[in-house]
TrEMBL record:
Gene3D superfamilies: Methylthiotransferase, N-terminal domain, Nucleic acid-binding proteins, tm_1862 like domain. Residues 137-375 form the Radical SAM core domain. PROSITE patterns: MTTASE_N (PS51449), MTTASE_RADICAL (PS01278), RADICAL_SAM (PS51918), TRAM (PS50926). Keywords: 4Fe-4S, Cytoplasm, Iron, Iron-sulfur, Metal-binding, Ribonucleoprotein, Ribosomal protein, S-adenosyl-L-methionine, Transferase. This is Ribosomal protein uS12 methylthiotransferase RimO. NCBIfam families: 30S ribosomal protein S12 methylthiotransferase RimO (TIGR01125), MiaB/RimO family radical SAM methylthiotransferase (TIGR00089). Belongs to the methylthiotransferase family. RimO subfamily. Residues 377-443 form the TRAM domain. Residues 10-120 form the MTTase N-terminal domain. [4Fe-4S] cluster 2 binds at C151, C155, C158.
Length: 454
């Protein structure tokens, strides 16, 4: 009797748009599907069905999402839509009526059920297809660690609470368990993300749990300290300057977590911040920045800003430039204001002309570049610790502790071909320009084994 022909596992492709938080959603969807026997396809033509995880924050992001859905339909034909724009099913189906299913952000079960309907899974309970740390779309040496969903703020330019709901923090033991599994799997850098990292645990009333024989609260300070026990790089993103952020800086000075803060200040002019419904005491913030740097001289601060917000005057913009010059932020991004469907700021008076927005954006980014370049030049002649991201036949590219992947600067090591992604090295800096450094490897660092207490 001939042996039965082996069944071929169905394949799922995914297009992940938007921020790192959406990327984590995509990873969680793929982890569930892989656990059910699905293979992951890196191309349209190799997939039995394609998931498009959309972004719906800005009008330009919505347009990009609709374009990506159209491309997936043209290239594959079977398309499931999810993510932040998924809440606007009417618009999606008006342009792309052939999509198989539409769901909103972090509705993982709805996506999995839609995949089941499109291409049923094979059932093989004897085979484990998912590693303990889950599946990730990042390189194997770093991973995003999402600690909460949603947001409890009400910024006038933002609709994240409407899209993703109110703040919903994960239990601290769940986060630490995931972090530990990632470290055990060889991840050497964790990037902590959420909509508002400083607010972590507010909705849980900072509930205390037992972790490895000691109490740990659902609170940023306790979480950062516990993550620091892993012995790998830990980088904090989307940190709002709540008072308790001061408690995290000593952990950075001690080397337990990276000396890096990503704080979305958005603006500095008091009346603009008030219109944005953001805290408006930037003079006090300047004092805290000075204090943080006294405690941790190596601290790198990245931020994002919006120029051209409705009602922003030339004086407001000049105040922003003056504040930036005094703050001397290390890494800066800037967006030109866009209306967001459903945001309160759309109805504000005195919208800024697009040409003025563009001119202010260019002036702001040039001011930021000059600050960054001066800081980079000051690092020439020093030795910095670097994690390797890429290696080819011309050399290696990595990042210092002051640089997060994809958004910050890089360190170029020409001729250093005997390295691998995830390696930690010390580099003597020989040249610098804007946000980037060039140098020579002077020492390879044997990374400490992650520290676990079972």
């Amino acid at each position: 009797m001939p042996s039965p022909r082996p069944q071929v596992a169905p394949k799922v492709g995914i297009v992940s748009l938007g921020c790192a938080k959406a990327l984590v959603d995509s990873e969680r969807i793929l982890t569930r599907l892989r656990a059910e026997g699905y293979d992951i396809s890196g191309s349209y033509d190799g997939a039995d069905v394609v998931i498009v995880n959309t972004c719906g924050f800005l009008d330009s992001a919505r347009a990009e999402s609709l374009e990506a859905i159209g491309e997936a339909i043209a290239e594959n034909g079977k398309v499931i839509v999810t993510g932040c724009m998924g809440g606007d099913e009417k618009t999606i189906r008006a342009m792309h009526p052939s999509v198989l299913a539409v769901s909103g952000p972090h509705q993982y079960q709805a996506v999995v059920e839609a995949v089941h309907a499109a291409v049923p899974p094979l059932h093989d309970p004897m085979q484990s297809l998912v590693p303990p740390e889950g599946l990730h779309l990042t390189p194997s040496h770093y991973a995003y660690l999402k600690i909460s969903e949603g947001c409890h703020n009400s910024c006038s330019f933002c609709i994240i609470p409407d899209i993703r709901g109110p703040l919903a923090s994960r239990p601290v033991t769940d986060i630490l368990g995931e972090a530990e599994r990632l470290a055990e799997a060889g991840v050497r850098e964790l990037l902590v993300i959420s909509q508002d990292t400083s607010a972590y645990g507010l909705d849980l009333r900072h509930a205390e749990s037992q972790w490895r024989g000691r109490p740990v609260r659902a609170h940023l300070t306790d979480l950062a300290s516990a993550l620091g026990d892993l012995g790998i790089w830990v980088r904090l993103h989307y940190v709002y300057p709540y008072p308790h952020v001061d408690e995290v800086i000593p952990l950075m000075a001690e080397g337990r977590i990276l000396p890096y803060l990503d704080i979305p200040f958005q603006h500095a002019a008091p009346n603009v911040l008030k219109a944005m419904r953001r805290p408006a005491n930037q003079e006090k913030v300047l004092g805290r920045i000075r204090s943080w740097r006294e405690t941790c001289p190596d601290l790198a601060i990245r931020s994002t800003f919006i120029v051209g917000f409705p009602g922003e005057t030339e004086d407001d913009f000049e105040a922003l430039l003056d504040w930036l010059d005094e703050a001397q932020l290390d890494r800066v991004g800037c967006f030109k204001y866009e209306n967001v469907k459903g945001a309160g700021a759309n109805a504000f008076a005195d919208h800024v002309d697009e040409d003025v927005k563009e001119e202010r954006h260019q002036r702001f980014m040039e001011a930021a570049r000059q600050i960054a370049d001066a800081k980079a030049q000051a690092r020439v002649g020093t030795v910095v610790e670097v994690i390797i991201d890429e290696v080819d036949d011309e050399g290696a590219i990595g990042r210092s502790k002051a640089d997060s992947p994809e958004v910050d600067g890089e360190v170029y090591m020409n001729g250093e071909t005997d390295l691998a992604p995830g390696d930690l090295v010390r580099v003597a800096v020989e040249a610098a320009e804007d946000y980037d450094l060039w140098g020579e490897v002077v020492e390879r660092i044997t990374p400490p084994r992650p520290r676990f207490t079972r």
